[in-house]
Specification:
Elements: H1 8-21, H2 30-43, H3 49-58, H4 62-70, H5 81-97, E1 105-110, H6 116-128, H7 131-137, E2 138-144, H8 147-155, E3 157-159, H9 168-174, E4 175-178, E5 181-184, H10 186-190, E6 192-196, E7 208-213, H11 222-235, E8 236-244, E9 257-261, E10 266-269, H12 273-277, H13 288-302, E11 306-311, E12 316-319, H14 321-327, H15 351-360, E13 364-372, E14 378-389, E15 395-404, H16 406-505, E16 509-514, E17 519-522, H17 524-530, H18 534-537, H19 551-562, E18 571-576, E19 582-593, E20 599-607
Length: 609
Amino acid sequence: MNALESDPRFEALLEYLRDGRGFDFTGYKRGSVARRIGKRMAQVGIREPDAYQDHLEANPSEFVDLFNTILINVTRFFRDPEAWRFLTDTILPRILSSKGQDDEIRLWSAGCASGEEAYSLAMILAEALDPRAFKERVKIYATDVDEEALSEGRRGIYSTTDVEDVPLEMRDRWFKPTDDHMVLSPDIRRSVIFGRQDLVHDSPISRIDLLVCRNVLMYFTSETQAGIIARLHFALKDEGFLFLGRSEMLFSGRDYFTPVEMRHRVFAKVADEERRRGRPSYDVVETDQTKRDRLVGAAVDATKAAQIVVDEDGRVIMVNQRARQQFGLHKQDVGRPLQDLEISYRPMELRSRIDLVHAERRPIEVLAIERALPDGATQFLDLSVAPVQDNVGGVLGTIVTFTDVTDAVKLRSDVERAQQELETAYEELQATNEEVETTNEELQSTVEELETTNEELQSSNEELETMNEELQSTNEQLQTVNDELRERTDDLNRTTDFTESILASISAAVFVVDETLTIRVWSAPAQDLWGMRSGEVVGTKLSKLDCGLPVADVIDPIQEAMIRTTPTDPVEVDALDRRGRSIRCRIRCMPVRVPDGMRGVVVLTEVLA
């Protein structure tokens, strides 16, 4: 555990950030936010939270660096390509097919960072629609709490590395290369609306068809996640979809969303959830008839028995929720002829009984109908077919009710068997009941342990994903530093090569000594004249130089030049070249001054004879 997590001064620092700057990190996972704040504190050389709070108060610009450290803006175009292909091939066609020709298409990228995923949405929609429809019908909202990242997203300018994950055809169509950058098409940029939005506190955008919120929830505590999930649920239309990151689950949102494709973390909104959990904060005006209709519909769906209403023409006009679940019916089946549905003959032939009810205008019942379930189990149903009549006795239709009596049938069978075997099997039955009760308790305990373990594994997975993104961010910073070092090394090598070329072009033998009379440069003509290579000489004291140059005769002129700002008078000395021949040389000493204060002398040796 990070030491900051348990420090009460750290909580005070979080409250200061919330109350003083409007950034509420109290809902973030303590391990993650403590690690990020600790990293920034280490960068400025502060170890204590209260001291860092004083530093923030004294240096307002520090807030920008701190928030950039906490808010990890790691994102990419088409991140997790398989998930995006599923979104493009399966979810987007479902959204478009549910729309009218001129209906608006609304998408929201929450926690968009620098906008890559919002622009990914724009590109797949631009590919699916004609230009006019895309321009007039599509609205994409991109929100984040980081204003700096939002500003970067609004520009729509990315490096060539950033767009490597964009499919080549899309890249050629929607990006324009400029110098070493890639600029998004104006049509794509205009389709995305960027704005600051805090998922924890701000009201959500409404009437959304597709909500992309990837690798955002994993930074928050489970309590904060629950509140965010409720807001995301409210934002979506009843037929809307939610797209999460690959390491995120909806443990606290099972009642709000149902999985469409768990592997790609795509979920559909549970449409009735808003009504069960309360209305939005604003007032909705409803007529008495609307309330009655909603009440009747909710009451029918709440009935435990499966009910189907058929009109006098044999068309299905109502199927309640229990019937849809029990017999695999759908809302789309309403309005179809009953005879086209499997329920008309399985588990019991209904059409003849409906005709009989219409003719005799009285209900009929069939008890304990046996029905085989797909898993091999057997279900028992009581069937009731009753006429629906108007005030004058005319038949308007028929209501068919299936009541699940499996438990009752089994109970009667068990009771009969128990009565027959009571005298001989009472003790065995008692022992079996106790064993079943013990097993149930053990299973319940095991289930609770598995749920706890699953939650812990999910939390660990989210923590690892967070650390992975932090490492990726650090790696990108190191890559940038490495590129700068490589450029500086290349500059230094070019400068060195240039200097060596200049020295080689001078016919006189040249060497350079610093203020300690250590040789720093030894030119090629010097090697030819004195017979010593640069690698043998550079770094050696001049006084220890063992060649034909009379060192003792040139040290004094060199030292004199060291303290002057102009060259000394030439000195002629006798010497021996690399072959041992006597030569007469003229020595010139010219002082060198380096801006950092270092001194040296350039020594030129010209052979006279």
